[in-house]
Amino acid sequence: MSGTEEFAGVAETEVEHQFDELDVDDGPRVGIVMGSKSDMPVMERAGEELDERGIRFEIRVMSAHRDPDTVADYARNARMRGLRVIIAGAGLSAALPGVVAAHTDLPVIGVPLTSKTSIAGGLDALLSIAQMPPGVPVGSVGVDNAKNAAVLAARILAA
């Protein structure tokens, strides 16, 4: 056995023990992500609805364009951390829901958001979310309707 193999075995054992300490039963079930802090007032409505229903959630800001590796890591590790649904809000090109869906097998609900720089009042974001390629599904709710995304997430969890 070479030193590299021994090191790899030790590293795997340490990682396994770190996972033993995680208690995903008490963790969030729904992840709420958005591309910009300016999206927070709309996306907080999803959190409020989930909170009223007693569903644990987390809220994160991450950009599909500025932080693609962060988004990919978040999506890839979501199930392991106990998430069962991800709500992703995005405006303009609305890439975030699709990028999240490309890196997870969890249900992803897209919330198209209006933007002061949008020329179509949120229609651009709605079409970007709705026009995903085959094999990368993203559900969509109405423009700025994060509350409905939370209701849909609750129904998915209850199914």
Provide structural commentary.
A 5-stranded parallel beta sheet has the order 2-1-3-4-5, sandwiched between helices. The chain contains 6 helices and 5 strands; from the N terminus they run H-E-H-E-H-E-H-E-H-E-H. It has one domain (28-158): 3-Layer(aba) Sandwich (Rossmann fold), CATH 3.40.50.1970. Helix 2 (40-52) runs parallel beside helix 6 and helix 3 crosses helix 4. Mean pLDDT is 88; it is low at 1-13. With 159 residues, it is α/β, with parallel strands linked by helices. Strand 4 (108-113), helix 5 and strand 5 form a beta-alpha-beta unit. The chain is globular.
Task: State the low-pLDDT regions, or none.
Answer: 1-13
In order across it, which strands form the biggest sheet?
Answer: 2-1-3-4-5
Distance between the termini: 49 Å
CATH architectural group: 3-Layer(aba) Sandwich
- Which CATH class is shown? Alpha Beta
Helix content: 40-55%
Total separate domains: 1
Summarize the structure.
By secondary structure, the chain is of the alpha/beta class. The chain has 6 helices and 5 strands; from the N terminus they run αβαβαβαβαβα.
Secondary structure elements and pairings:
Layout: H1 3-21, E1 30-34, H2 40-52, E2 57-61, H3 68-77, E3 85-91, H4 95-102, E4 108-113, H5 123-130, E5 139-140, H6 146-158
Parallel strand pairs: 1-2, 1-3, 3-4, 4-5
Helix pairs in contact: 2-6, 3-4
